[in-house]
Amino acid sequence: QVQFVESGGGLVQPGGLLKLSCIASGFDIAWNYMNWYRQFPGNERELVAGSSYSCRTTYVDFVKGRFTISRDNAKNTIYLQMNSLKSEDTAQYYCNEHEYAMGGYYWGQGTPVTVSS
Length: 117
Description:
The chain is built from 1 helix and 10 strands, in the order βββββββββαβ. With 117 residues, the protein is mainly beta.
């Protein structure tokens, strides 16, 4: 069964950094487009960053230059390095495979990120 387990979130001061991890199971991420998303209370999830099977990466404008998505296919894990965090980055963060996400499938619990002084 496909499952995603996110971790690494927490409370951090503005300007700080965090590294999120997402362990996938039930399929091999090596041949799939993997994304990180975030969700603010009362809002829908929004795309933050993506990594293709060839490790080509994409970012939404509000995280470019601050966040870095990466993957370790041997561990079936993707990461999100978040630097220069801002209060507006406070959200619940999720990972998912692109097609599964489009279909609304297999969302995990996510990991909370709170940026506050």
